Amino acid sequence: MRTRTRARRWAFVLLSGVVAAAVVYVFGPTGSDLLASLAVGSVVFLMFSVALVVPNERVKQTLIDLLSLLP
Questions:
Q1: Per residue, what are the HEC states of 23-48?
Q2: Between the CA of residue 56 and those of 2, 41, 60, 63, 66, what are the distances in Å?
Q3: Which residue, 49, 15, 50, 22, is CA-closest to 37?
């Protein structure tokens, strides 16, 4: 049961990154291309991953703040 919950959490994290990349690719500025969409999707994936994995709230917030500086 616990493994299923962990798999669902990681599936949500992965799906969030894919959806963010798709939204930027479809609805983003005219000059945005596939590379920009993948960059945004990977940053979203990393932010959700940090929120899921890091137990310390102060470290988690610092890492998320640093990741938000990326494109």
A1: HHHHHCCCCCCHHHHHHHHHHHHHHH
A2: 21, 24, 6, 11, 16
A3: 22
| CA 37 to each of CA 40, 45, 49, 69: distance values in angstroms, whole numbers, following the listed order | 5, 12, 18, 16
> Tens digit of pLDDT for each residue in 44-68?
999 999 999 999 999 999 999 998 8
Q: In terms of residues, how long is the chain?
A: 71
CA distance 27 to 23: 6
pTM of the entire predicted model: 0.82
